[in-house]
Design goal:
single chain, 436 residues, alpha/beta, two-stranded antiparallel sheet, 45% helix, elongated
């Protein structure tokens, strides 16, 4: 109907088609110039142009006189072209030599690949961290500021891990300990602290090593091994000072280890001393007789079956046990005397021991008695324990104080304390039980 009226629908609007013999393209362009923008876009489409070309022009009489258009040959079916996508990588910049080219290449890589950005960020962070550490190390080594003190804490029973797994308790090893069992992480032995001590003495710029001791004692062998290890580290690092600080107690083996330090500082209420060796056991001879059980032991060697708790104690076995204890005690005394280097006050300790015993006939001992007691080491090497204040008066410790305050007094308020932790052992048997 619109065609019969001489009109054409283009882009949603009606455009009048004049009865003229002008070319269809010129007529369509003139009409589209007055159309809306949306209509112009639709009219410019190839389909709209073909429809406008095939539309009849003029009056019906003129339309009949026009020869018919040849039929349009159908072309092959073509799939619509996919939309143009933006390239995955931006157009590379022109090649530029020198620093500008390198910067341009880095910018292109960062804008196109986030993995490169992540790696570069990690590299910059690592380099910054390494630079800060290097500058700090340089300051510490050259200017010795801030002063660095490494801290190693020895807290717990002195025993090996195997001894605790076999059921040894505090009561068997140290009489001053309260609980009967000890957890694995509170043990002190050479296997656990050897690497930690090496790291503490080898730290760059370390002015001193603070050894925080809180131990009631334990194995004589482990105490001696740690004592020798500390002495070897002191000889290897003569500029690093070793300071021992006592918290609750440094008795028996704990004091054995502390004697390897240059100075010992304890609290006024700390328990210090107990320079002695003890051996404990039980006898079940009469109990076995009541139960009707007979003990049978066959050994090659007279001393092999000594101190059997199920056999009566013989005088020879007792003499051998006392000889062994005296040997261990002599080693302990030698380590203490070498560590304190003449700072022990034998006369004051002997007088205190004389006054601490039961009342005597005379209020004060004579010179010969006091000299004999001091020579034996009464009050020092008889297993006596003292508080920190009395231990300072007897020469067992060098001062009374607290670790943080003492370090600030010695090295200033800017002192930096670096804690060095020992490596905890792995119980593989428990791990296997958990998996199985």
């Amino acid at each position: 109907a619109a065609a019969a009226a001489g009109r054409e629908e283009v882009g949603g609007g009606l455009i009048a088609v004049e009865e003229t013999q002008e070319e269809p393209d010129a007529l369509l362009a003139a009409q589209l110039s007055r159309a809306k923008p949306t209509a112009v876009r639709r009219a410019a489409h190839p389909r709209t142009r073909r429809r406008a070309e095939s539309a009849p022009v003029g009056t019906p009489e003129q339309q009949q006189q026009q020869p018919p258009l040849p039929p349009r040959r159908p072309g092959p079916l073509r799939r619509p072209a996919p939309p143009q996508r933006s390239p995955a990588y931006p157009v590379p910049l022109p090649a530029i030599n020198g620093t500008a080219g390198a910067v341009a290449a880095v910018l292109i890589a960062l804008s196109s690949n986030w993995v490169v950005y992540e790696r570069l960020s990690w590299l910059v962070t690592a380099l910054g961290r390494w630079s800060v550490g290097a500058v700090r190390t340089l300051f510490v080594r050259t200017l010795h500021f801030p002063p660095t003190v490494t801290l190693v804490t020895m807290r717990g029973l002195i025993a090996t891990d195997d001894e605790m797994r076999t059921g040894l308790s505090y009561a068997m090893l140290a009489p001053e300990a309260a609980p009967a069992e000890v957890r694995g992480e509170s043990l002190v032995n050479l296997g656990r602290f050897e690497k930690a001590l090496d790291r503490a003495f080898s730290m760059p710029g370390a002015r001193a090593v603070a050894l925080l001791i809180d131990s009631p004692g334990g194995s004589p062998a482990q105490s001696s091994l740690l004592h020798r290890k500390l002495l070897a580290l002191r000889r290897r690092h003569p500029r690093v000072k070793l300071l021992a600080f006592v918290e609750d107690s440094a008795a028996s083996g704990g004091y054995y280890i502390a004697c390897a330090a240059d100075e010992i500082v304890a609290d006024a209420n700390s328990i210090v001393g107990s320079i002695g060796v003890i051996s404990r056991g039980f006898g079940f001879v009469k109990s076995l007789k009541k139960k009707g059980v007979e003990r049978r032991v066959h050994a090659a060697g007279d001393s092999k079956s000594g101190l059997d708790p199920y056999l009566p104690m013989r005088s020879a076995d007792l003499a051998r046990q006392r000889r062994l204890l005296k040997e261990l005690h002599a080693n302990f005394i030698g380590a203490v005397q070498a560590g304190r280097k003449g700072r022990l006050k034998r006369d004051e300790a002997a007088l205190l021991c004389y006054n601490s015993t039961e009342p005597r006939l005379f209020a004060s001992p004579g010179r010969r008695t006091l000299a004999r007691m001091a020579q034996r080491g009464d009050g020092l090497f008889d297993g006596s324990v003292y508080s920190g204040a009395v231990a300072q008066a007897l020469g067992l410790v060098d001062g009374v104080g607290e670790m943080s305050t003492e370090l600030q007094r010695r090295y200033g308020r800017a002192v930096r304390v670096v804690r060095v932790e020992p490596e905890a052992p792995v119980d593989y048997r428990r791990l296997l039980r958990w998996f199985l």
